[in-house]
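Quick one: co-fold with iron/sulfur cluster.
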Amino acid sequence: MLKGILFDIQRYAIHDGSGIRTLVFFKGCPLECEWCSNPESQFMLPEMGYFPDNCIRCDKCIPACPYGSIREEENILITDRSFCRECYHSRQALQCTTVCQSLARKAIGAYYTVDEVMKEVLKDQLIYRQTGGGVTLSGGEPTQQAEFAEALLRELQDNLIDTAIETCGYCKWENLQRLLPYLDQMFFDIKLFDSEEHARYTGVKNELILDNISRLGKELDNYDIELYMRTPVIPGITDSRDNIENICRFLSEQGIKNIEFLSYHKLGRGKYLTIGKEYKLYDIEPPAKEFIAECDGIAEKYGLNPVHFE
Ligand code: SF4
Ligand code: SF4
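Sure, here it is.
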Protein backbone atom coordinates (compact mmCIF):
# COMPACT_ATOMS: atom_id res chain seq x y z
CA MET A 1 0.00 0.00 0.00
CA LEU A 2 1.22 3.50 -0.88
CA LYS A 3 2.66 5.30 2.14
CA GLY A 4 4.38 8.61 2.66
CA ILE A 5 6.82 9.55 5.35
CA LEU A 6 5.75 12.62 7.32
CA PHE A 7 7.06 14.25 10.45
CA ASP A 8 4.04 16.25 11.54
CA ILE A 9 0.44 17.17 10.79
CA GLN A 10 -0.28 20.59 12.24
CA ARG A 11 -3.78 22.04 12.51
CA TYR A 12 -4.93 25.69 12.73
CA ALA A 13 -2.07 27.21 10.72
CA ILE A 14 -2.61 30.71 9.31
CA HIS A 15 0.59 31.66 7.45
CA ASP A 16 0.85 29.12 4.67
CA GLY A 17 -2.03 29.83 2.35
CA SER A 18 -5.50 31.34 2.60
CA GLY A 19 -7.70 30.93 5.70
CA ILE A 20 -7.09 28.41 8.46
CA ARG A 21 -5.17 25.39 7.23
CA THR A 22 -3.76 22.03 8.17
CA LEU A 23 -0.08 21.62 7.32
CA VAL A 24 1.11 18.18 6.29
CA PHE A 25 4.88 18.06 6.74
CA PHE A 26 6.73 15.69 4.41
CA LYS A 27 10.05 14.28 5.56
CA GLY A 28 13.06 14.49 3.25
CA CYS A 29 14.53 17.48 1.41
CA PRO A 30 17.28 17.74 -1.23
CA LEU A 31 18.40 21.07 0.26
CA GLU A 32 20.05 21.73 3.60
CA CYS A 33 19.52 25.47 4.07
CA GLU A 34 21.50 26.88 6.97
CA TRP A 35 18.45 28.85 8.20
CA CYS A 36 15.98 25.94 7.93
CA SER A 37 13.41 26.18 10.72
CA ASN A 38 12.47 22.50 10.27
CA PRO A 39 15.86 20.72 10.32
CA GLU A 40 14.07 17.50 11.30
CA SER A 41 12.46 17.59 7.86
CA GLN A 42 15.70 17.16 5.92
CA PHE A 43 16.57 13.49 6.40
CA MET A 44 14.28 11.10 4.54
CA LEU A 45 13.86 8.41 7.24
CA PRO A 46 12.56 8.45 10.82
CA GLU A 47 15.32 9.73 13.10
CA MET A 48 15.93 10.00 16.83
CA GLY A 49 15.10 13.23 18.64
CA TYR A 50 16.51 13.59 22.13
CA PHE A 51 14.70 15.76 24.71
CA PRO A 52 16.83 15.51 27.86
CA ASP A 53 14.34 17.44 30.03
CA ASN A 54 11.97 14.45 29.74
CA CYS A 55 14.59 11.91 30.83
CA ILE A 56 13.80 10.11 34.09
CA ARG A 57 17.10 8.16 34.05
CA CYS A 58 15.60 4.71 33.85
CA ASP A 59 18.67 3.91 31.71
CA LYS A 60 16.73 1.42 29.57
CA CYS A 61 18.11 3.04 26.42
CA ILE A 62 21.72 2.14 27.26
CA PRO A 63 21.45 -1.64 26.66
CA ALA A 64 18.76 -1.16 24.00
CA CYS A 65 21.09 0.59 21.55
CA PRO A 66 22.64 -2.15 19.36
CA TYR A 67 25.60 0.12 18.59
CA GLY A 68 26.51 0.82 22.22
CA SER A 69 26.19 4.53 21.47
CA ILE A 70 24.68 5.60 24.80
CA ARG A 71 26.82 5.82 27.92
CA GLU A 72 26.79 7.52 31.30
CA GLU A 73 29.50 9.97 32.17
CA GLU A 74 29.53 11.86 35.49
CA ASN A 75 25.86 11.07 35.95
CA ILE A 76 24.93 12.45 32.52
CA LEU A 77 23.77 10.38 29.54
CA ILE A 78 25.96 10.90 26.49
CA THR A 79 24.83 9.79 23.03
CA ASP A 80 27.49 9.30 20.37
CA ARG A 81 25.45 9.82 17.21
CA SER A 82 28.09 8.58 14.78
CA PHE A 83 26.17 5.33 14.20
CA CYS A 84 22.64 6.73 14.29
CA ARG A 85 22.43 7.23 10.50
CA GLU A 86 23.44 3.61 9.96
CA CYS A 87 20.88 2.62 12.59
CA TYR A 88 18.06 4.53 10.80
CA HIS A 89 18.65 2.38 7.70
CA SER A 90 18.78 -0.89 9.62
CA ARG A 91 15.99 -3.36 10.42
CA GLN A 92 16.36 -2.65 14.13
CA ALA A 93 16.19 1.11 13.72
CA LEU A 94 15.59 3.40 16.67
CA GLN A 95 15.58 0.76 19.43
CA CYS A 96 16.41 3.46 21.98
CA THR A 97 13.10 5.20 21.26
CA THR A 98 11.02 2.04 21.63
CA VAL A 99 12.13 1.53 25.26
CA CYS A 100 11.93 5.18 26.30
CA GLN A 101 8.58 5.58 28.01
CA SER A 102 9.08 9.18 29.05
CA LEU A 103 9.47 10.37 25.44
CA ALA A 104 12.97 11.70 26.05
CA ARG A 105 13.98 9.75 22.94
CA LYS A 106 11.38 9.99 20.22
CA ALA A 107 11.22 8.78 16.64
CA ILE A 108 10.73 11.82 14.43
CA GLY A 109 8.89 10.78 11.30
CA ALA A 110 6.38 8.03 10.59
CA TYR A 111 4.71 6.35 7.61
CA TYR A 112 1.13 7.28 6.75
CA THR A 113 -1.38 6.11 4.16
CA VAL A 114 -3.48 8.70 2.32
CA ASP A 115 -6.51 7.54 4.34
CA GLU A 116 -4.70 8.16 7.61
CA VAL A 117 -3.80 11.70 6.59
CA MET A 118 -7.33 12.34 5.33
CA LYS A 119 -8.80 11.17 8.64
CA GLU A 120 -6.80 13.88 10.39
CA VAL A 121 -7.37 16.71 7.93
CA LEU A 122 -11.12 16.08 7.58
CA LYS A 123 -11.55 17.00 11.26
CA ASP A 124 -11.38 20.66 10.24
CA GLN A 125 -13.40 20.54 7.04
CA LEU A 126 -15.97 22.97 8.42
CA ILE A 127 -13.26 25.44 9.46
CA TYR A 128 -11.76 25.33 5.97
CA ARG A 129 -15.16 26.20 4.51
CA GLN A 130 -15.79 29.02 6.99
CA THR A 131 -12.36 30.64 6.55
CA GLY A 132 -11.45 29.85 2.95
CA GLY A 133 -8.70 27.59 4.26
CA GLY A 134 -7.58 24.10 3.37
CA VAL A 135 -4.56 21.84 3.44
CA THR A 136 -0.95 22.75 2.64
CA LEU A 137 1.66 20.13 1.80
CA SER A 138 4.88 21.33 3.36
CA GLY A 139 8.14 19.86 4.54
CA GLY A 140 10.69 18.86 3.82
CA GLU A 141 9.98 18.66 0.15
CA PRO A 142 6.66 17.12 -0.99
CA THR A 143 7.93 16.57 -4.58
CA GLN A 144 10.47 14.09 -3.17
CA GLN A 145 7.46 11.82 -2.57
CA ALA A 146 5.58 12.82 -5.69
CA GLU A 147 3.43 9.69 -5.97
CA PHE A 148 2.16 10.02 -2.41
CA ALA A 149 1.74 13.80 -2.75
CA GLU A 150 -0.30 13.36 -5.92
CA ALA A 151 -2.54 10.71 -4.35
CA LEU A 152 -3.14 12.91 -1.31
CA LEU A 153 -3.85 16.04 -3.36
CA ARG A 154 -6.30 14.10 -5.55
CA GLU A 155 -8.16 12.88 -2.49
CA LEU A 156 -8.28 16.40 -1.06
CA GLN A 157 -9.61 17.74 -4.34
CA ASP A 158 -12.27 14.98 -4.43
CA ASN A 159 -13.36 16.18 -0.98
CA LEU A 160 -13.54 19.80 -2.24
CA ILE A 161 -10.73 20.91 0.08
CA ASP A 162 -8.53 23.80 -1.03
CA THR A 163 -4.98 22.57 -1.68
CA ALA A 164 -1.57 24.23 -1.49
CA ILE A 165 2.04 23.12 -1.67
CA GLU A 166 5.29 24.63 -0.45
CA THR A 167 8.27 23.63 -2.57
CA CYS A 168 11.96 24.43 -2.86
CA GLY A 169 11.59 23.61 -6.56
CA TYR A 170 14.59 21.29 -6.65
CA CYS A 171 13.06 18.27 -8.37
CA LYS A 172 12.51 16.70 -11.76
CA TRP A 173 10.02 18.83 -13.70
CA GLU A 174 7.81 15.77 -14.11
CA ASN A 175 7.44 15.46 -10.33
CA LEU A 176 6.22 19.03 -10.09
CA GLN A 177 4.09 18.84 -13.22
CA ARG A 178 2.10 15.82 -12.03
CA LEU A 179 0.92 17.79 -8.99
CA LEU A 180 -0.26 20.88 -10.87
CA PRO A 181 -3.78 19.63 -11.79
CA TYR A 182 -4.60 19.20 -8.09
CA LEU A 183 -3.33 22.52 -6.72
CA ASP A 184 -5.13 25.74 -5.84
CA GLN A 185 -2.10 27.56 -4.40
CA MET A 186 1.62 27.09 -4.73
CA PHE A 187 4.45 28.60 -2.69
CA PHE A 188 7.75 28.28 -4.52
CA ASP A 189 11.05 29.32 -2.93
CA ILE A 190 13.71 31.28 -4.73
CA LYS A 191 16.44 31.99 -2.23
CA LEU A 192 19.65 33.01 -3.98
CA PHE A 193 20.05 33.91 -7.66
CA ASP A 194 23.79 33.21 -7.84
CA SER A 195 24.22 29.46 -8.23
CA GLU A 196 27.54 29.22 -6.35
CA GLU A 197 26.10 31.19 -3.42
CA HIS A 198 23.03 28.98 -3.54
CA ALA A 199 25.24 25.90 -3.26
CA ARG A 200 27.23 27.45 -0.42
CA TYR A 201 24.19 28.02 1.79
CA THR A 202 21.77 25.29 0.71
CA GLY A 203 24.04 22.47 -0.46
CA VAL A 204 22.89 22.47 -4.12
CA LYS A 205 23.22 24.73 -7.17
CA ASN A 206 20.08 26.46 -8.42
CA GLU A 207 19.92 25.78 -12.20
CA LEU A 208 17.27 23.08 -11.79
CA ILE A 209 15.16 25.41 -9.65
CA LEU A 210 15.40 28.30 -12.12
CA ASP A 211 14.56 25.94 -14.97
CA ASN A 212 11.46 24.71 -13.12
CA ILE A 213 10.37 28.31 -12.49
CA SER A 214 10.71 29.06 -16.23
CA ARG A 215 8.65 26.00 -17.15
CA LEU A 216 6.06 26.89 -14.56
CA GLY A 217 5.83 30.43 -15.94
CA LYS A 218 5.06 28.97 -19.39
CA GLU A 219 2.52 26.38 -18.20
CA LEU A 220 0.71 28.30 -15.50
CA ASP A 221 -2.04 29.55 -17.84
CA ASN A 222 -3.15 25.93 -18.29
CA TYR A 223 -4.03 25.63 -14.62
CA ASP A 224 -6.09 27.49 -12.04
CA ILE A 225 -3.27 27.97 -9.52
CA GLU A 226 -2.36 31.04 -7.49
CA LEU A 227 1.46 31.00 -7.54
CA TYR A 228 3.46 32.85 -4.89
CA MET A 229 7.23 32.95 -5.11
CA ARG A 230 8.96 33.25 -1.75
CA THR A 231 12.33 34.70 -0.87
CA PRO A 232 13.59 34.35 2.70
CA VAL A 233 15.40 37.54 3.69
CA ILE A 234 18.46 36.41 5.67
CA PRO A 235 20.76 39.26 6.67
CA GLY A 236 24.24 38.82 5.23
CA ILE A 237 23.15 35.90 3.00
CA THR A 238 20.15 36.64 0.77
CA ASP A 239 19.58 40.34 1.49
CA SER A 240 21.98 41.95 -0.98
CA ARG A 241 20.34 44.41 -3.35
CA ASP A 242 21.85 42.44 -6.24
CA ASN A 243 20.18 39.22 -5.12
CA ILE A 244 16.76 40.83 -4.63
CA GLU A 245 17.00 42.72 -7.95
CA ASN A 246 18.16 39.64 -9.88
CA ILE A 247 15.38 37.49 -8.45
CA CYS A 248 12.70 40.09 -9.21
CA ARG A 249 14.02 40.67 -12.75
CA PHE A 250 14.11 36.92 -13.44
CA LEU A 251 10.58 36.33 -12.13
CA SER A 252 9.24 39.25 -14.10
CA GLU A 253 10.83 37.81 -17.28
CA GLN A 254 9.03 34.50 -16.60
CA GLY A 255 5.66 36.26 -16.40
CA ILE A 256 5.27 35.52 -12.70
CA LYS A 257 3.22 37.94 -10.61
CA ASN A 258 3.35 37.35 -6.85
CA ILE A 259 6.31 37.36 -4.48
CA GLU A 260 6.48 37.21 -0.72
CA PHE A 261 9.60 38.29 1.16
CA LEU A 262 9.86 36.27 4.37
CA SER A 263 11.75 37.74 7.31
CA TYR A 264 14.41 35.51 8.82
CA HIS A 265 13.28 34.35 12.26
CA LYS A 266 14.90 32.42 15.05
CA LEU A 267 12.19 29.77 15.46
CA GLY A 268 13.54 26.29 15.01
CA ARG A 269 17.03 26.96 16.37
CA GLY A 270 16.40 24.71 19.38
CA LYS A 271 15.43 21.78 17.16
CA TYR A 272 18.97 21.42 15.84
CA LEU A 273 20.27 20.20 19.18
CA THR A 274 17.50 17.62 19.56
CA ILE A 275 18.59 15.86 16.35
CA GLY A 276 22.32 16.31 16.94
CA LYS A 277 22.88 19.02 14.31
CA GLU A 278 24.75 22.29 14.57
CA TYR A 279 22.95 25.61 13.98
CA LYS A 280 25.32 27.97 12.20
CA LEU A 281 23.49 31.31 12.16
CA TYR A 282 23.40 32.21 15.86
CA ASP A 283 24.80 35.70 15.20
CA ILE A 284 22.11 36.70 12.71
CA GLU A 285 19.20 38.92 13.74
CA PRO A 286 15.92 39.33 11.80
CA PRO A 287 15.94 42.07 9.13
CA ALA A 288 14.35 45.48 9.80
CA LYS A 289 10.73 45.87 8.68
CA GLU A 290 11.87 48.83 6.58
CA PHE A 291 14.14 46.53 4.59
CA ILE A 292 11.28 44.16 3.80
CA ALA A 293 9.34 47.21 2.59
CA GLU A 294 12.36 48.09 0.43
CA CYS A 295 12.29 44.58 -1.07
CA ASP A 296 8.58 45.04 -1.79
CA GLY A 297 9.45 48.29 -3.56
CA ILE A 298 12.05 46.54 -5.74
CA ALA A 299 9.48 43.88 -6.63
CA GLU A 300 6.98 46.54 -7.66
CA LYS A 301 9.62 48.20 -9.82
CA TYR A 302 9.74 44.96 -11.83
CA GLY A 303 5.97 44.76 -12.11
CA LEU A 304 5.58 42.09 -9.40
CA ASN A 305 2.92 42.05 -6.73
CA PRO A 306 4.45 41.79 -3.21
CA VAL A 307 2.20 39.84 -0.82
CA HIS A 308 2.35 39.00 2.88
CA PHE A 309 0.56 36.14 4.60
CA GLU A 310 2.20 36.90 7.97
S1 SF4 B 1 15.14 5.42 28.15
FE1 SF4 B 1 14.53 7.57 28.02
S2 SF4 B 1 14.05 8.14 30.11
FE2 SF4 B 1 15.21 6.24 30.24
S3 SF4 B 1 17.32 6.94 30.49
FE3 SF4 B 1 17.02 6.63 28.32
S4 SF4 B 1 16.42 8.70 27.57
FE4 SF4 B 1 16.17 8.69 29.78
S1 SF4 C 1 19.18 5.98 17.07
FE1 SF4 C 1 20.04 3.90 17.00
S2 SF4 C 1 22.27 4.17 17.12
FE2 SF4 C 1 21.34 6.11 17.74
S3 SF4 C 1 21.25 5.94 19.96
FE3 SF4 C 1 19.26 5.20 19.18
S4 SF4 C 1 19.45 2.98 18.94
FE4 SF4 C 1 21.53 3.85 19.21
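If it helps, The longest strand covers residues 4-13.
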